[in-house]
Amino acid sequence: MLSTPASAADLPSLRASIASQAEAVRSLKESGASKEALAPAVKELLELKGRLPEGDPDRPKPKQQKKKQPPPSPAAASPADASSDSIVPRSQDFSQWYQDVIKASELAESSPTRGSMIIKPWGMKVWDLLKKDLDGRITEKHGVDNAYFPLLIPKSFLSKEAEHVDGFAKECAVVTHHRLKADPADPANLIPDPDAELEEPLIVRPTSETIIWSSFRSWINSHRDLPLKINQWANVLRWELRTRPFLRTSEFLWQEGHTAHATGEGALEDARKMIGEYSQFTAETLALPTVVGVKSPSERFAGAEETYTIEALMQNGWALQSGTSHYLGQSFGKAFDVTYQTSDESVRETVYGTSWGVSTRLVGALIMTHSDDAGLVLPPPVAPQQVVIVPIPGKKEEEKAAVGKAVDKLAGELRGKGLRVKVDDRDWIRNGAKYYEWERKGVPLRIEVGPRDVAKSQCVLKWRKMKEDKEAVGLDDVAAIVDKGMGEYHDFLLQSARDRLAGGIRLDASYEDMKGLLEKDEAGAFDGAGLFLVPWKCDAANEDKIKEECKATIRCYPLDVNEMGMAEGKTCFYSGEPATHMALFGRAF
Amino acid sequence: MLSTPASAADLPSLRASIASQAEAVRSLKESGASKEALAPAVKELLELKGRLPEGDPDRPKPKQQKKKQPPPSPAAASPADASSDSIVPRSQDFSQWYQDVIKASELAESSPTRGSMIIKPWGMKVWDLLKKDLDGRITEKHGVDNAYFPLLIPKSFLSKEAEHVDGFAKECAVVTHHRLKADPADPANLIPDPDAELEEPLIVRPTSETIIWSSFRSWINSHRDLPLKINQWANVLRWELRTRPFLRTSEFLWQEGHTAHATGEGALEDARKMIGEYSQFTAETLALPTVVGVKSPSERFAGAEETYTIEALMQNGWALQSGTSHYLGQSFGKAFDVTYQTSDESVRETVYGTSWGVSTRLVGALIMTHSDDAGLVLPPPVAPQQVVIVPIPGKKEEEKAAVGKAVDKLAGELRGKGLRVKVDDRDWIRNGAKYYEWERKGVPLRIEVGPRDVAKSQCVLKWRKMKEDKEAVGLDDVAAIVDKGMGEYHDFLLQSARDRLAGGIRLDASYEDMKGLLEKDEAGAFDGAGLFLVPWKCDAANEDKIKEECKATIRCYPLDVNEMGMAEGKTCFYSGEPATHMALFGRAF
């Protein structure tokens, strides 16, 4: 694709690639590279510049460029490829940048089914890594058992818990027939067979509380059966009008935990423990810091008495609800008549419940937290490849052999450390294009190994973020350095995101301040007003008014500051009445 | 539940438990146990016998039994429990036995959604272990990437591949609306909102060829993009009239691999490689031997040019198709216009495809291959717990401490070997009930540790199958013995199943022989006529006639005997014409 002229949309990322390649040439020169060793890097630089628009001062003379250019490879000529790597800068259009990063990194793409996306291999591997880590925490650390419940839920189940049906029944996929048949009017067309209409429609699960609690009824009999802790990894579907990949799609993948307890205290403790686990998990695995809090009554899950949330701050200053945990009280216990016999045999009590979940939305959180104008940035625990080694084979056979041997040894050593390593030895792709591709895909570390490196018993490291410069490292030390570096890289991403979160929360803003700052915030804007931590008197009507006036909602009442009693003695920033909570306001996806 | 009288259906398993407990008492006596040490085992034996029907000679005197009986624990009094552990013998009713084993081992249960089952934690863990193993083979060994495609497929997609629509469009769940609303006539009732009818109905995927091939069209451009190998772990749904848990449910879990290749040879080779992998996987992981073969034209997958299959033999003599791999030729390539540019740039060719899948049906295969009248039997690779340690704490505090210490050490050593170990220290369940429960659930090995064992620095091993007798083993040697024993146990299960498969295939039967033997075969019967390997002239009309006359189908043309040319020179056992294949006939689930 480097041989096709760049479109206007391509330009910013092309310029970034040119700068990066120019830097590579410079550092090669500085390290005393011979003309021969320099040639491939210079060639790439010229080719990159050749994609600049006609008349651009950095564009090389046509003739010179043409002579050096190899015939385009079939892959490079792909129209799909040519359009897939352009990324609009965040500052120009944050929403478009988000879509572009997903496309350029090949995480996902839109599907022929309205509102659903296709998760491509790179995105699937990120999700599978995330899932494996979280599953271990859920099952081994918290003693929850996985199970699987039906996709389709009888319509009548949804009506059992009154609030729940209000919250969920509205927009969902309804199965009404169990057969298609050829249309008598046009046999090439298929229609739902009128003879195969279901007596009771089935709903594609928007969440599984109802069907799981109907099982709990027969699974729970004695206090010995409690707590009962079940988790399900599943696809769910909520019909959405406006969708964005990962953030909001009609169908999405998630885990949903459902627990039943003998006491309200036990259930509440579990709901809080799980939101704590989510917060720890997102930090440790996704380098994603969050504010842990409780939702205001109007933002609670349908059927919950308390909803805990982790809220993350995206690079445009908007919040993203990244996981929730609900204390259900006895709502589902009563709706599904789930009781247990206490140790006093004559007494039966209704059980208390929780539910908690995170979804593929977390991949959206990852993207909007760490990525930049060059593409995706991934923390090592969920990077499908953590290291890509690009061998620069040289021209002589003995050079090729030496590079090949060094690369094999290096890859083996890194894999021995448990790292996921890709050796990109495709001989039909130029080095610059490889660098550019793996940058877009967010691989934490690139290692280049050329003949001169081997001669000096070294290789060259380039981190995707954290360090601007390449660094030459001795081949004997590289495995240990990289292993340690991966941890530092994760810490760097986490600390950067923590700094942004801390800097993105304003304290002591007046309502007028907040309103004024948020007015400037548009959906596509970058680096917006952020979040506002303010004293607040809990009041649903005022909450609605603010939502109308500022498009801002209460993301949560953060647990830490509220438990410290920070709201005490303060007056509500909106009503002027005594504050009941410190509330975190902001715009949200 | 031991305190409730056994129903007639319970009797066989009750007698098995009594025999096992009597054996335990005998071996305790033989090992010189004191009266005190013997007492708990004797008590359990008496309690078990107490469940025998009135008048049974083995039933103890009522008074004596009553005196010894502790108050029933709440869990034991559960009506759900009391009915969940009875297993009809295979010889009495094989179908009922299958259902009983699933219930008694808590693998799964029926759901409120017609035709779907609930996979309970024990069954889920079996599936998750199976899945993890197979996923490694698919992704790491065969270089296939996981991805995820939408659950709902536009109706029009199904019509694109003509044969495919005939095979799949008929019985599937059709989504016609995207919203429910309160019924104006009865606001407590919900109805599909007529204003939310979809313009084009969506189908819950019965399989994903259509939507995946529509993506392949944009993913494949050059020969460099081939082969493209994608796998998806997903739920699928095919509306089924008669369902059986795991074997045939409307919704089921599976993996579906889809590959695209530049040449027909490449695709065919891949289809065969994957059926070979399935065969290896089922043997190595599930101890399930299979016959690898190719389907007759009338049994092919809709849209395939060749369907490969692995067929297993269940204990009732019926075959179970356990995995299939399809060579699709260019059918989907043409239907979805998927072409690639060859290395000669001026030429574009249509790609060739394969698809292959296994499902939760494999859990059904496991059950019907290894399990017995006492319940589930699991090969170690997919046993949620491989070892259960039952501490028999004794009465004195120092005995309890010594047993606890020995058990902790033992569990740690076994876990250090990578084994999944459960310590069953529930103090409200009697030992006999524990033994009985873990036997039902198929745990390969039980280890008992009592005070006298600790004094002798030993413990007692009881394998679920393989060895009838308990064996005392020194505590210092037990970890190594168990580790080695797990492999032997797997080999024992595999070899037993291989012997049954080899013995279950009749050679050189005449058609009249086969018909006569199969006539005696009923659905619920145990130890049926088995399979028939016969010379056959490929003929769909004759195949239909045999199906009608014998309820038998061609399970496959086994690859090995056909590649050896075994059919050459033989005449068809049905038509008398020259044989084209050796065919494996039999009844099947």
TrEMBL record, chains A, B:
SUPFAM superfamilies: C-terminal domain of ProRS (SSF64586), Class II aaRS ABD-related (SSF52954), Class II aaRS and biotin synthetases (SSF55681), S15/NS1 RNA-binding domain (SSF47060). Its EC number is 6.1.1.15. Residues 10-66 form the WHEP-TRS domain. Residues 44-61 have a biased composition (Basic and acidic residues). It is an enzyme of class 6 (ligase). It comes from the Eukaryota. The keyword Transmembrane helix does not apply. Residues 44-87 are annotated as: Disordered. Residues 114-379 form the Aminoacyl-transfer RNA synthetases class-II family profile domain. Keywords: Aminoacyl-tRNA synthetase, ATP-binding, Ligase, Nucleotide-binding, Protein biosynthesis. Residues 75-86 have a biased composition (Low complexity). It holds the Pfam family WHEP-TRS. PANTHER family: PROLINE--TRNA LIGASE, CHLOROPLASTIC_MITOCHONDRIAL (PTHR43382:SF3), PROLYL-TRNA SYNTHETASE (PTHR43382). HAMAP family: Pro_tRNA_synth_type3 (MF_01571). This is proline--tRNA ligase.
